[in-house]
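Dig into what follows:
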Amino acid sequence: MHHKGLGFWLAKRRLRDPDKPAVIFGDDVLTYGEFADAADRVAAVLWHRGIRKGDAVAYIGENSPQFLQVMFAAAQLGAVFVPVNTRLAPPEMRHVLVDSGARALILDVDFLERAMPGVEAARIAQVIVTGDGSPENPGLARLAAERNAGHTIADVDLDDPAAIIYTSGTTGRPKGAVLSHGNLTWVALNCIVDYDVVSTDVSLMISPLFHVASLGMGALPVVLKGATLVLEKGFEAGRALSLIQRHGITMLSGVPTTYQMLADHPDWGATDLTTLQKLTCGGSAVPTRILNAYEKRGLSFSQGYGMTETSPGATSLSPAMTRAKQGSVGLPHFFTEVRIADENGDMVPRGTVGEIEITGPNVFLGYHGQPEATAEAFTDDGWFRSGDLGYLDADGYLFIADRLKDMIISGGENIYPAEVENLISDIEGISGVAVVGVPDERWGEVPLAVVTLQEGAEVDTAIVRSHLDGLLARYKLPKSVVVVEELPRTASGKVRKADLRARFERG
């Protein structure tokens, strides 16, 4: 019996640092010994509910110790953890639960109603709410308290699946990226090396753990290194600032929007930030106004580029190079490689734009249940085709030139236009639609729907948003709708979205 995956991490930490704070959540402090014991008991609950190696265990909930306990418990059993975005609408949750083949679902009770269509469609027999639950329906905390820590641990190799993280695809249906134990281990090691994570760090997690960046590059490196993680259910700028001062936070991860909201808060100037040493920012480039605000407080950022399929880190830009290489997303992570290819798959010279291709032990296994999509995602020699355009400068720093997939990043959330366009096309009177991202002061960019109408039809923003409400997460809804006489198209009939972005980005 051997276990090479994430499932042995907490047992190792229990041996080394049993009394060291591992997770702080509100007024509760879990030591590594208590954290490991709790995960063991959750694993026992899952085992006695019939969960075995390879079974998918879905989780819908806000940041909490139980989120991580379930993930590590599933890892111990060789089960596959499926974190679900809490902002998804019922049809989207249904797709994730059905597509993943989830055998069990653990969720905060607030999401039960939204998840029920998926529970019924996927015929999930084991549905457990977090917390204590009720006498008639005991929750995970009560069930775990009744279990001993002893349980069966599965044989797990680094190549075995550890998680399925859903990412929107250009076809409009989310695809499940299968991440192995090795993928998540190596991305954590990349972070430890490139972000200089140390055991004395105290990291504040203000982003949702269901995002692969928060999980793979936020929580896991902290646990692997034996540092301390401060969990917040959600982000509120004033409270985050108070926690930085209260706990002596040394590490903070976020997206440009969250960093801007912190700097704009009335308490920003009065908050003691002297313990902060490491700020990491993803989702999109850090605007100059944010760099300036933080540099005035003696702080600078590590920035980066990646995607779910790379667990997610592919490159990182060190704080020392923030200004010298402004606009770049940095160098490949320590155990990762990046190259640029033309449309024929041939490598291009430095400074030439082409498709970004990535390889390394952090690159995913493939798309769950989609062998054809998986094959298309890789080159013949095994490099992942990102679908993004960029170039490497003379020093090997990566610059993003454009997005082949037209993805919109709004407040750190990925939005794929095809998914939104497919639903807008169902609205009576609409003859054509294209969704593009346009700049937004708060969210970085937001979706704009550009539509053409049938003769005599009348459609406006309210009609489109009302139609989409309940079908898509609210952050995916177009902020506005513009009616045009015709959409710009190529000779083959494809919408020229670059033209639309250029036309409407100025407002």
The mean pLDDT is 93. The longest strand covers residues 430-440. The CA atoms of residues 183 and 362 lie 4 Å apart. DSSP finds 15 helices and 25 strands in the chain.
